[in-house]
Amino acid sequence: MLLNSDQIAQHNEARLAKHKQQLAPWTGEVDKTEAIIEKLMAYQVAIPSWALGTGGTRFGRFPGGGEPRSLDEKIDDVGLLHALNRSSGAISLHIPWDIPADAAATRERAAALGLTFDAVNSNTFQDQADQPESYKFGSLQHVDAAVRQQAIDHNIEVIRHGVELGSKSLTVWLSDGSCFPGQLNFRQAFQRTYESLQAIYAALPPDWKVFVEYKAFEPNFYSMTVGDWGSSLLYAQKLGPQAYTLVDLGHHLPNANIEQIVSLLLMEGKLGGFHFNDSKYGDDDLTVGSIRPYQLFLIFNELVEGMDARGMNHASDLGWMIDASHNVKDPLEDLLQSVEAIQIAYAQALLIDQARLADARNANDVVTAQEILQDAFRTDVRPLVAEARLRAGGALAPLALFREQAIRQQLIGQRGAKAIATGL
Amino acid sequence: MLLNSDQIAQHNEARLAKHKQQLAPWTGEVDKTEAIIEKLMAYQVAIPSWALGTGGTRFGRFPGGGEPRSLDEKIDDVGLLHALNRSSGAISLHIPWDIPADAAATRERAAALGLTFDAVNSNTFQDQADQPESYKFGSLQHVDAAVRQQAIDHNIEVIRHGVELGSKSLTVWLSDGSCFPGQLNFRQAFQRTYESLQAIYAALPPDWKVFVEYKAFEPNFYSMTVGDWGSSLLYAQKLGPQAYTLVDLGHHLPNANIEQIVSLLLMEGKLGGFHFNDSKYGDDDLTVGSIRPYQLFLIFNELVEGMDARGMNHASDLGWMIDASHNVKDPLEDLLQSVEAIQIAYAQALLIDQARLADARNANDVVTAQEILQDAFRTDVRPLVAEARLRAGGALAPLALFREQAIRQQLIGQRGAKAIATGL
Amino acid sequence: MLLNSDQIAQHNEARLAKHKQQLAPWTGEVDKTEAIIEKLMAYQVAIPSWALGTGGTRFGRFPGGGEPRSLDEKIDDVGLLHALNRSSGAISLHIPWDIPADAAATRERAAALGLTFDAVNSNTFQDQADQPESYKFGSLQHVDAAVRQQAIDHNIEVIRHGVELGSKSLTVWLSDGSCFPGQLNFRQAFQRTYESLQAIYAALPPDWKVFVEYKAFEPNFYSMTVGDWGSSLLYAQKLGPQAYTLVDLGHHLPNANIEQIVSLLLMEGKLGGFHFNDSKYGDDDLTVGSIRPYQLFLIFNELVEGMDARGMNHASDLGWMIDASHNVKDPLEDLLQSVEAIQIAYAQALLIDQARLADARNANDVVTAQEILQDAFRTDVRPLVAEARLRAGGALAPLALFREQAIRQQLIGQRGAKAIATGL
Amino acid sequence: MLLNSDQIAQHNEARLAKHKQQLAPWTGEVDKTEAIIEKLMAYQVAIPSWALGTGGTRFGRFPGGGEPRSLDEKIDDVGLLHALNRSSGAISLHIPWDIPADAAATRERAAALGLTFDAVNSNTFQDQADQPESYKFGSLQHVDAAVRQQAIDHNIEVIRHGVELGSKSLTVWLSDGSCFPGQLNFRQAFQRTYESLQAIYAALPPDWKVFVEYKAFEPNFYSMTVGDWGSSLLYAQKLGPQAYTLVDLGHHLPNANIEQIVSLLLMEGKLGGFHFNDSKYGDDDLTVGSIRPYQLFLIFNELVEGMDARGMNHASDLGWMIDASHNVKDPLEDLLQSVEAIQIAYAQALLIDQARLADARNANDVVTAQEILQDAFRTDVRPLVAEARLRAGGALAPLALFREQAIRQQLIGQRGAKAIATGL
């Protein structure tokens, strides 16, 4: 292990005085503060196994070195993140990139690092070397039943791997769609996709969920067969109670009001999971909170209020995952920034006085409603987030400690400067 | 009447030779040609009563004169359009702008011009002078039950007017939404709106439909409570079999694939009506086909294929209406251009060889699928559209005849240069 | 005067202890803190005379009562804002809505309230009752020289009014453009507009600036003749050293990187002024900072760095103005929120350690560069902003005091519930 | 050669009667028709060497087989296209993907197929295996002078290759920019880029042009250092008379009015070249005319009018190139469709009666202006385009002949099913 608890303790020791000072203003409101800290400690964000290496675009990729070369090394990397922030206690695998050779051993390795296995992800957007049928023209939507069957079988195999690892959900993201007007009969593509999903749904263990992820465009540039929350909800309604919609922040048309979508899906009992990232133009997959932190906060406001209204458990009743790419940053540093941004938004949302907000709304007092939200957003909650980490055994300043310990350099030393992880 | 059948006959006479020549290439394929002409003749697009005057923006309005000053004059204007193109045989009224003093007389006047009454439209986006409650913070969504009841009652009154005139559907477009984060609880706004719609739905005659129109933004600039097809479909699903979604081409986020939405709504049996216009940025309400004629054609491709797949009657099973604004054009000329653009797109869609297209799709032959669509789109179908008009008793060149007869000048003479119609 | 200094003192007195406590963490870094407070005190944002009433859209307007009925009352309203926040010490007039009958008296009234006159604004996007030529098809771009001359003359008259009031700049916002393909020859429209601007430029006093404001769309929906910063810069380059570009935050295409535009215009020495507001879809004219506060901060980062690089004075070398609309909020409350949001963003930008940021950039340390910006943004600078207000004689909590003193109710009492201000 | 002139002749023979019939309506207006046909025959669109293989996205790539494995084979493929349509008589090379081992032989091979060498393209958006410095953080903008120098040297080397081949222009497309707020000082990035471009400019032969291509986003997702036409024009202005802006249709923000940009750049004498493709969401690189054919036509309207106004030669005074990707179509078929779409738009633009259009504009007759444009656009000009091909020795139906001769199957036979071309 590249980081031991002594190193963390030492790091914290050196920063403790300043932290206490920053936390001081909060100590007057113990009840509120403690409730938030507890929720922060319980809240875990899964790390996708494909986000541990440098990402790229169709124009190029500039790897940074020391990337994990195997599933074991990916688990180690997530373990490292979790040791630093105590909030990354789950890993989300991608099949076929991460097929465990020995599931029991893999589970054990993860457990030793405090990690569980979140949703498993299938891949029918690429052709694998040994694959008889091609997904060039889609997978679950394909006009050829043999291609659809191959994609169905693959998803069922992914479920099987997930069962062995203790996962409880399958995320189906389809790149299926079309690049040109005329290419698809939209209705028939929907219906074929629905039938394929039914076959996958039938293979779900009874305590599993399936997440039907939507995306507005890319890699298909004219239509996507699961293109928006409306389509995804239609599939989920038709499939049954184990099917849910999954929201990825980067999968919308320009200017979409994502927080309203979140609210409506929760209202319908059909929000299943969340993929965090940030973007300015499309599915840019940037660090969470790096472009529109207020939007992130507004989404958390809806999540907190909407989950509370349904009596849902924040920590366990939705699947939370980062789904970002790291083209110009160290992947691990990027993930540390992302998790912190999520925690900040969550803490700010927890600060909102929902009763006062409801009063302002009932009085049509738009000015006060805005003041209430912005008061929470403008509050510096970083001391609370740090305190939650501290209590959970993590580092007061994870990013700083990552650099103090020269962890990337150590990884390069171990794995080499040319090590490249599987992923996009 | 400003235009009599002799004038039309004379106009046609002068142009007949050239028309015949242009029609000649079509005569080789009589069956196909005749089928298209028949469908064109049957197809009528309703004209909204509020689109007969000059439109404007919040920045200003530049009226052009001769606008209709009363419901009777509005009916006359639509009658004039219909006399010219024989494809505008319906009028869609807006209450309270067009409350008929004597419904029987109004019906008679319309019938004399060959017009029926299409969907009636309610208005809860503006306050009327004598109205006790204000819609400043919404109508059907309002936190105050008294405001909701006022809006419900208004809609029921609109239905009553519609019944008297022979309408068979109510279009509910809500400007309800919010301008700022925090202003609304989205879920509760949805639920209040749904309950209000239920009350309106309960007042529908059994042979009526209600159209729930969605819009992405404007006049609310943060959220709209019926903001996209997904939301609208949810309302329509919950309300029951008489409730449908209405698609207005200008009510989407940038880059939306509207034709796919049309296809999915038809698949679900929930597409009720259509508002035609064109736009580049938002709800610009420009002349149909003036910005994206290919998109219009692609939408008609979905309409034709999707309606045929459900055995629907093109002419009568959906509500077809123009909903545009005319800020820099003569409103009647603009409407003539819009109707012609719709007919062209419809004729081109009818030209598509659906069997060959299905074959290309089944072979994943994307190149051929595109060729089939573009072959239809690149074909000059104006002779067919003109022939349909000619056979129905209209003018070969409606816009030209409108100018030849100096109709606007006549209208100004009758109504004055300062006459301004009700509307936006 | 509806608010006197005793009331402000009393308000502050009651809040002083809590304020001191919140300010405490800052007192350790006196030099930095004091420099920021001083800059905040010097920084004034002009209030446009048309933003003192309730705004609306083409769909409707819901006035709130007590709106100013005259230029004098508008000045009083700005005086009230300035008394509250000591940061609204300028007013920007709009001609012909605000023609002063007696310029000297108007100046005196403003001076008594501590107000100066910022840029004057012309209006060639609406027809006035007595105007011989119509702007329906544009003003400075018009194909008819008589219309252009009328618009030129109007701008020169606006300058004359401005001179009398002590303004030093003219803002030219043109709605000129086209609604349909074909309507304009873009090149000739540019050239006519340029020639018209030359005539206005020639009438500028030597110590004046002219701001050429750009806008992507609305009220024209196909093209705008000053449509983006590239066009505006072309005009400003050609006109000469007194011509500048003005940036309005809401006047861009979706996803535009406005902060980069700001940086490049400063680089070229051609940024003249700024119109603050916020938006999600178009020129929504929402409260500053209500939708994208991080973007606002990033813009201030560029302003601070870019102005410092040119040795510009933050307070006086650019024109700062709010240009928002208030459809669902009390206009004065909305303006208080907007000014505060601007001050917060400015203070956060001043917090940025530019030297460290430069180091991070030189090392391509993207992670640290982001940390530096987000550290500033996540810091709660509200105590500094409040302190600046306190020292300048304003209220610690302007919005709260506005409500405590029931100022809107007083205004309604004085001016009536139906008083409606000129504006959009 | 996979296609000889006998095969073309035979193909034409079989289709001649039908073609003559379709051409018949045009023969009445000989002067106009002949002028258009002549212009079509003179007009050549360059094919980029990287567009001859299957393209992909970061998610995957599905090659189709028979792709060119070398520069020679790429030239052969373009020769094949040119033999079919007689309008693809130029090839645009990309260095380092297409470095000619023997420039004289390469030139000869091209000349034998009737091809010339269009603009040469540099690549500083990817790292090559043997390259000492990395472009991860930019090339011409890089903070490190050594990286900038490497990129400058590369561009100068590209010029050298171009000189040997007879090219007369260099296209510089930079992916330089930033992914996160804070990463770049925009002003300094601009200035470093400008200085680098100066060094390249200094190496231009006197009869060469350099094209500075702009792009709004991707692969950088926060800022692009040559991000819009305004930036590109600034560089071109500063560099001097040999520097021009290059417009790629897919490189804009949503809803941009590209035709207006074209008009203004022509006005400034700074439009240098054009990259054709089509898109719905971003730089989708779809077949030209497949999504927005009316926009393409409107752009050609500006090109024709604007070039004529400056006395420019349509065929030779701008660089015309396709820059598309072919993810789901056969690349050669896709290119045939693209060239045809360009020719159709060009022919339609040539049909416009510019004098009548000018009259309509001068009369503010927006309705007629639209009618004039749409009359041209709705006209089926395919017979003219076919006639131009026929006279030039090409095929009446290039795509049909490509399939009749089973050219792809022949290419697969020669080059293998797994042959993959260099490119994106």
UniProtKB/TrEMBL annotation, chains A, B, C, D:
MF annotations from Gene Ontology: isomerase activity; metal ion binding
Keywords noted in UniProt: Isomerase, Manganese, Metal-binding
UniProt-listed Gene3D superfamilies: Divalent-metal-dependent TIM barrel enzymes (3.20.20.150)
Protein's UniProt name: Xylose isomerase domain protein TIM barrel
InterPro entries noted in UniProt: L-rhamnose_isomerase, Xyl_isomerase-like_sf
Transmembrane segments: none
